[in-house]
Amino acid sequence: MRRRLGSVRARAALGATLVVAVALVAAGAAVLIALRSSLSGQAGAQADRAAREVAAELAAGRSYDQLSLDDEDRPVQVVTEDGTLVAATEGLERISGTGTDAVRPTPGAARATAPAGHAAATPDAEDDADADGAGDTDDAGSASPLRPGEIGEDTGFRDGSATVDGDTADYRFASVSVETDDRGALAVHAGAPLSSEHSAVGTALTVMLFGFPLLLAVVAGVTWLVTRRALRPVEGIRREMAAITASADLARRVPEPDTHDEVARLARTTNETLTALQSAVERQRRFVADASHELRSPIASLRTQLEVGAAHPELLDVPGAVEDTVRLQDLAADLLLLARLDAGERPADARVDLAALVREATAQRAGVSVDAEPVEVAGSRGQLGRVLANLLDNARRHARAEVTVSVRRESRPDGRWALVAVADDGDGVPEADRERVFERFVRLDAARTRDEGGAGLGLAIARDVAERHGGTLTVRQAQAGGALFELRLPLA
């Protein structure tokens, strides 16, 4: 169960269901409140109309026994200023909510009169404040004194109940005041049934109680299905990655859905990562194989010379043994530096004067001309010196007579750079091979012997170091026709 709830599908379905549930409860409550308010307002309007009809009859001088009080659906009370019931709906057995509980007129009260000009006896403001409040207006008793024959403009509303001919129901009561010529101030209380309100609210509540859970179940199911369909490619990616991990076959790729959403981008990024990983692994394998091959030759040569020297001391080639040892030492140093670069070693952040570094690197080299202006960059002095040495060795190996080195500042749209240019007057690098020369263990001249050339690591190391310093190393044709290697590094 916890595993299922931990899935994206379960969390999405649960989250969507909770959000919809909250929205439905809020909307349902608002609908019920609005429905009840509307129906209560309609009942209040009916009660007000009924009360004013009776008040109009009283204002016209009609006697109590001639009033229209025979409608069982709207109980009516006519009350004097002192709260005495003088007329009521026939069959009225009980009533509450009007402020007068009497249901039968007081004997002889119909003949009593009250001084004109006094406000009618209606529920006071405190009683009105305790009422339901929906649709309430100012209490009728708060109006200014009425003239004979005049009906008060204000209506007071309260909710209550009444029993007429044995039937009990809830009502919305309206109270209006009327001033008569001969009977003084009177109050008319008339009710309109709230059965429609109760029925409608009950029906709506029943529909919500049964419909909302069904709707939530539909939302949860649809969310589950849609999420499962949306995440199906992710599951395919997961299975394929698990298979790649188990088989160690980096040539496999995860399926890419024919969409343009986040899942498709995830699949493409995963495949790009697999491609980069495969390339790195293959590069590492080639590196190990090439390194083993390159190390085998000087070691075998050195061993042969030592064995011959051991058997025939007069035949020992000491200079050759020293040369092979130096070559083996340089190759080991190159391999160690490449290993550190591949491991992500960051260069130092010291300031290096490239002009001074170039002069130092060319001091013991014949046939090299230098034109350098002081330029400082940030980085490792040792690694940058190694780059210059590799570039000079490569130029010297291919030059016919002369190698030129220049150092200057350069402004480009992407910033300010230090430019070191190393050119020779040799045959140059064919355009098709200007990127291959920076690959490890690559030698363009296949006929060249190992003793005449290096192991094919110098330019690869130079480019790796340049990139670790935030720069670039490129090659193009020099003006003299040879190769022109350009090292660009950001100014300090």
What does this structure look like?
Helix 5 runs antiparallel to helix 6 and helix 6 (318-342) runs parallel beside helix 9. Helix content is 46%, strand content 19%. It has 3 domains: 1-246, no CATH class; 250-345, Helix Hairpins, CATH 1.10.287.130; 350-490, Heat Shock Protein 90, CATH 3.30.565. It has helices spanning 2-5, 8-59, 125-130, 195-247, 262-311, 318-342, 354-362, 381-398, 458-468, and strands at residues 76-80, 85-88, 92-96, 156-164, 167-179, 185-193, 350-353, 368-372, 376-379, 403-412, 415-424, 472-477, 483-490. The strands form 3 sheets. A 6-stranded antiparallel sheet has the order 2-1-6-5-4-3. The chain has a 5-stranded mixed sheet with strand order 8-10-11-13-12. Mean pLDDT is 81; it is low at 1-5, 112-143 and 446-452. The chain has 492 residues and is of the alpha+beta class. The protein has 9 helices and 13 strands.
